[in-house]
Write a structure and sequence with these properties.
Radius of gyration: 20 Å
Strand order of the largest sheet: 1-7-2-5-8-9
Number of helices: 11
Number of domains: 2
Strand content: 15-25%
CATH architecture of the largest domain: Sandwich
CATH class of the largest domain: Mainly Beta
Distance between the termini: 6 Å
Length: 286
């Protein structure tokens, strides 16, 4: 569902703060950035792009424009769920402004938010009270406080990027043209057999050296990186097509359906059938 938010062109941001018994809004997307704080909802399910996960008691997520997202009651038994949702225009920060040195961390955070960012429990603890009282501020003071919160989030540690690249317009940025060329190649050939020798040649490095290089640059092995790209495309197909799970597995370069199911569950915390049902069961078309 494409949500038409109540944020007007004249406002910098809008905020909703409420206590409720369940999550009942369908899977949706909108053009605005969204910062969401959820408290006392352990066992609920969060869907961000191609990522599905059960949540803990407290979480804080930043979602970029036009990214599918939603929270669902699932196994949550709380009847006093606190939810604070802040939505702001994608052009609130001009591109020229974001290129200034003092805003480099916020610029980087916004780029990563195209895949959804989960902030650490330390960040939630540090900013929870400020987020809960933001709706008490008005006018310029409220805008200054939001900017301050975004800055503090942008320099916080232990954040986690959630969704797959194929669900966003983000490109492969690793501050290394060699790595970027390798990822572009894997993304273009995910449905074929891709070997370490091939990608090492593209990077113009010996295989052993490239294996160490990609692990150091991305935090993942070559195989994990390739599987992540393949799973991203598989997730997209599970949502957008009626192909069988076996057909999707083979179309995405997995030659063994059992291996596909095992890797999918390890990375996405559910099997492909459950992933597809989550989307088709919670999506509303208008």
């Amino acid at each position: 569902m494409r949500e038409i938010t109540p944020l007007t062109p004249s406002d910098c941001f809008t905020i909703f703060s409420r206590v409720k018994q369940k999550f009942d809004f369908p899977l949706h997307y909108h053009e605005e950035y969204e910062l969401t704080l959820i408290l006392n909802a352990k066992g609920a399910k969060r869907v961000i792009g191609g990522h599905i996960e059960m949540i803990e008691n407290a979480e804080l997520v930043l979602i970029g424009p036009n990214m599918y997202h939603g929270w669902f009651t699932h196994q949550c038994q709380s009847e006093e769920i606190t939810e604070v949702v802040i939505q702001f225009h994608k052009d609130l920060f001009d591109d020229k402004l974001l290129k200034r040195n003092q805003l480099s961390f916020i610029k980087s955070m916004f780029e990563r938010s195209q895949r959804g960012i989960l902030f650490s429990q330390e960040a939630v603890l540090a900013l929870k009270d400020r987020l809960l009282t933001l709706d008490k501020k008005t006018g310029f003071d409220s805008v200054l406080e939001l900017l301050s919160i975004l800055h503090d989030l942008s320099i916080s540690r232990n954040t986690r990027t959630l969704s797959d690249l194929v669900f966003s317009s983000e490109k492969f940025y690793y501050n290394s043209r060699r790595i970027e060329k390798v990822f572009e190649y894997m993304n273009a050939n995910y449905n074929k057999s891709v070997s370490l020798a091939e990608v090492a040649r593209i990077a113009n490095m010996p295989e052993a050296s490239f294996s160490r290089f990609i692990k150091k640059r991305t935090g993942k092995t070559f195989i994990d990186s390739l599987n992540e790209i393949r799973l991203g495309h598989a997730s997209r197909m599970l949502i957008d097509t009626t192909n069988t799970i076996a057909e999707i597995a083979y179309k995405c370069g997995f030659n063994n359906i059992s291996n596909f199911n095992r890797i999918f569950k390890r990375k996405k915390f559910c099997i492909p059938k459950e992933f597809r049902e989550t989307y088709t069961g919670n999506r509303v078309f208008i």
